[in-house]
Amino acid sequence: MSKLLILGAGGHGRVVADAALSTGNWDEIAFLDNNNELNDVLGKAVVGGFESYMDHREDYSAAIVAIGNNVTRMIWLDRLERAGYEIPSIIHPSSTISRFSQIERGSVIMAGVVVNASARVGKGCILNTSSSIDHDCILENGVHISPGVNVCGTVHVKSCSWLGVGSKVLNNVTIGFNVIVAAGTIVIKDIPDNVMVAGMPAKIKKNLEMKSDVGKDFFIPASYEWERNEVRTRSV
Ligand SMILES: CC(C)(COP(=O)(O)OP(=O)(O)OC[C@H]1O[C@@H](n2cnc3c(N)ncnc32)[C@H](O)[C@@H]1OP(=O)(O)O)[C@@H](O)C(=O)NCCC(=O)NCCS
């Protein structure tokens, strides 16, 4: 029996649960959430707070993190992996994922997403509703692509960056580590690490700080990992 534990029962958690149920791959789904007032969500039980994750290890073989904040999501993903949970990727059946693309564990792909050939999506990414990732793109670990974003071919998005709703990125651009691309922005050239950009074309509006104790290296994908993993298709 395949049982999935979802960390986070908020709006994003519900969308992740819905996508997971749509795959037909899970016999049972439950949530962990720190809101004590939540007992069930979408008819699925909330079985404890986040910190109780070790208590459910025997009952749930697999777990996924449904937290929007990129840094927090990656830290919890790491804890779950260390605890021995299987970390699946959740791929909504209405998405179109090239058989020649690669989707790493812990990533969630929502309804209507398109991922084209030779794109590589790292660990713990969110590809939100109706976004598109074109050929040869690299999304490193912990990237969030919001609804309706279009990323053209051969774009590299470094770890923990967030592309806001409806933004667009032209071909061959690199977006740095821990970047926020504001809603509706058009990115036409490379963006450095740790900034917020907005506008058309994108201009730097703010410098950002990585608020985390674990340090930048924690989020960077090891290059060997990309090569070692087999190509995965939508049936995962
Ligand atoms: C970028 C964002 C996070 C705001 O960040 P913030 O640090 O609070 O930014 P501020 O509101 O202080 O704005 C800073 C500057 O950026 C500008 N700005 C912010 N968002 C902008 C946008 N989408 N387009 C153009 N300019 C924008 C502000 O006007 C301000 O400009 P100024 O300094 O010239 O006056 C927010 O505007 C945004 O775009 N969120 C994305 C929401 C989203 O995608 N949700 C989907 C979740 S699934």
From TrEMBL:
<dbReference type="InterPro" id="IPR020019">
    <property type="entry name" value="AcTrfase_PglD-like"/>
</dbReference>
<keyword id="KW-0808">Transferase</keyword>
<dbReference type="InterPro" id="IPR011004">
    <property type="entry name" value="Trimer_LpxA-like_sf"/>
</dbReference>
<dbReference type="InterPro" id="IPR050179">
    <property type="entry name" value="Trans_hexapeptide_repeat"/>
</dbReference>
<dbReference type="Pfam" id="PF17836">
    <property type="entry name" value="PglD_N"/>
</dbReference>
<keyword id="KW-0677">Repeat</keyword>
<protein>
    <recommendedName>
        <fullName>PglD N-terminal domain-containing protein</fullName>
    </recommendedName>
</protein>
<dbReference type="InterPro" id="IPR018357">
    <property type="entry name" value="Hexapep_transf_CS"/>
</dbReference>
<feature type="domain" description="PglD N-terminal">
    <location>
        <begin position="3"/>
        <end position="80"/>
    </location>
</feature>
<dbReference type="InterPro" id="IPR041561">
    <property type="entry name" value="PglD_N"/>
</dbReference>
